[in-house]
Amino acid sequence: MFIVTGVYTQRDPRKTDLYKILDQYFDEFKRVYPERFEESYGPWRSEIEEAVRGYLNCGIFDTGFAKIYCPECDSYYVLPFSCKKYTLCPGCQEKRSLCWSEWLCEEVAQEVAHRQYVFTIPHVLPGFFPRNRYLLKELSRVAWESVKEFFQILCPQAGEDAVAGGVSCPQTCGNLLNWHPHIHMLITDGLFANDGTFYSLPELTSEELDDLTRLFRAKVINMLRDKALLSEELANKILSWRHNSGFSVHNKVRIEAGDREGLERVARYIIRSPVS
């Protein structure tokens, strides 16, 4: 007696909602973009069309495939080419996130506790970023510098040269695919001294997290002022707002030392595809 537990079925991207939407409406979107979206999101970028066209050809036999031979079972099968257009294509991005999280856990991360930090900025500021994409890199740098300085203040016994270990991933959309630049960071929950000794950090109080948020706020505003993107008037207005002027830092997700599964899960999350 044979029991069939599952049969592999080749995926057909053309049946998905995302494929149908892009296939039907992308050309019209490109046509109306200068009139309807350029003012808010900046000029048309060639990367947009490259990613969409690649995705529309991903996993489609009509656009090319490879013939693969298996010596163990002496048989052939065919595999359609993939686009490798990360972030837009859910399939390719999922493979990338799995490979990246495995590499991070095996080759980079130490056997210590980690935390996820999420740095967000107020709604009045994201308008700078669509036209200046390099600012996402600057925002990531500012978030890292804020963490580095603040951790050294919290843990002086580790030494003035002690640093945390971490990775930073900018994200540009919210849960509803709205434009929402923010930074995800996966950081060791402590500092490494020059001799390799790891010093764990205590749980941050709400007041300490507010202090970190204020440090991040000051560095972001100074960065924008230095680049002549933010006037003194607007900078002072933002600083006068209550509750850290719309800036926030979240750090409630902690991964215990040795929790490989939890670390991989968070690593996959911070570089997730906006569409899944």
Shape field: flat
- By CATH, the architecture of the largest domain is named 3-Layer(aba) Sandwich
Name the structural class. Answer: alpha+beta
Name the beta content range.
Answer: 15-25%
CATH class of the largest domain: Alpha Beta
Largest sheet: 4 strands, antiparallel
Which percent bin holds the helix content? 40-55%
Average pLDDT figure: 88
- Cα separation of the termini: 39 Å
Structurally, the number of domains stands at: 2
> How large, in whole angstroms, is the Cα Rg?
23 Å
CATH topology of the largest domain: Replication Protein E1, Chain: A
Any key phrases for this structure?
Replication Protein E1, Chain: A; 2 domains; alpha+beta; about 280 residues; 8 strands; 8 helices; four-stranded antiparallel β-sheet; two-stranded antiparallel sheet
Describe this protein's structure:
The protein is an alpha+beta fold and 276 residues long. The protein folds into two domains: 68 residues, no CATH class; 146 residues, Replication Protein E1, Chain: A (3-Layer(aba) Sandwich), CATH 3.40.1310.20. Helices cover 42% and strands 18% of the residues. The chain is built from eight helices and eight strands; from the N terminus they run αααββαβαββββααβα. The strands form three sheets. Strands 4-5-3-8 form a four-stranded antiparallel beta sheet, with helices on both faces. β4 and β5 form a beta hairpin. The longest helix is centred in the middle third of the chain and has 21 residues. It starts with 16 loop residues before the first helix and ends in a 6-residue tail after the last helix. The model has no long low-confidence stretch (mean pLDDT 88).
